Amino acid sequence: MKGIILAGGTGTRLYPITQGISKQLMPIYDKPMIYYPLSTLIQAGISDILVITTPEDQGAFQRLLGDGSQFGIRLTYAVQQRPEGLAQAFIIGADFIGDSSVALALGDNIFHGSQFSASLSQCRDPQGGIVFAYEVSDPSRYGVVAFDESGQALSIVEKPQHPQSNFAVVGLYFYDNSVIDIAHTITPSTRGELEITSVNEAYLRQGKLQVQKLARGDVWLDTGTFDSMSEASSYVEVLQKRTGIIIGSPEAAAYQSGFIDAEQLQILAARLDKSGYGKLLRNIL
């Protein structure tokens, strides 16, 4: 399985800050935002990852992440010339995906929780599509999934005015290789975008979409606004200080997934001693 992080977009909800820096490079407490989805894909055991950025921001992501070798993975880069929908990632990344299955992580989504981490290993060979749903108080902001009495998904609607449930589809998606063909056949929405919901609807019509509800205790944070970024930073700060456990660290995820060994992690920790980040990495050892 291969992975894609979509880190494009204009970040208009975070103006004027994002007029000078990509949203996904902004800090969530002690790490750049993109570290969190990168860690999620590494936790899922994915070591070949494509980062899709805007043309003007690609160099900054490359300076930050390099080729991924420090994490024991391979990172490559592609450009999204215009933000024309999440499903555009599968068109941009078609050659990268090749004959593989693929996971798409949005660059501004953060996940944390033991049950969530354990469930990632079950998503590596999807026979269709696998998405996650999280109960929210304001579902009309998201793609909303409705379930029947047995818990099977009935419908998924993008940003509905009258939501049929409070379960939002979160920014992490696992698909088999047919997602490339599906992405090429869907038409733009009234917003002029290739919606990820249209991809999910196609799998749902085929009876090949599995929707997993995130367990109680698992956390999903969408950091697309000033308030949600601040809340996410506070969450990470409090949890790390209280427990000494690092959240959203690609170094930690790489070590736990076996992509780097203890000696390599020790070297990475030594480079980051002055920031305090290195101490949290040493706690893993």
TrEMBL record:
Keywords: Magnesium, Metal-binding, Nucleotidyltransferase, Transferase. It is an enzyme of class 2 (transferase). It catalyses: dTTP + alpha-D-glucose 1-phosphate + H(+) = dTDP-alpha-D-glucose + diphosphate. GO terms for molecular function: glucose-1-phosphate thymidylyltransferase activity; metal ion binding. The keyword Methyltransferase does not apply. Residues 2-236 form the Nucleotidyl transferase domain. Its cofactor is Mg(2+). Pathway: Carbohydrate biosynthesis; dTDP-L-rhamnose biosynthesis. It comes from the Bacteria. Gene3D superfamilies: Spore Coat Polysaccharide Biosynthesis Protein SpsA, Chain A (3.90.550.10). GO terms for biological process: hexose metabolic process; polysaccharide biosynthetic process. It holds the Pfam family NTP_transferase. InterPro entries: G1P_thy_trans_s (IPR005907), NTP_transferase_dom (IPR005835), Nucleotide-diphossugar_trans (IPR029044). Its EC number is 2.7.7.24. NCBIfam families: rmlA (TIGR01207). Belongs to the glucose-1-phosphate thymidylyltransferase family. Catalyzes the conversion of glucose-1-phosphate and dTTP to dTDP-glucose and pyrophosphate. Involved in the biosynthesis of the dTDP-L-rhamnose which is a component of the critical linker, D-N-acetylglucosamine-L-rhamnose disaccharide, which connects the galactan region of arabinogalactan to peptidoglycan via a phosphodiester linkage. This is Glucose-1-phosphate thymidylyltransferase. It comes from Corynebacterium matruchotii ATCC 14266.
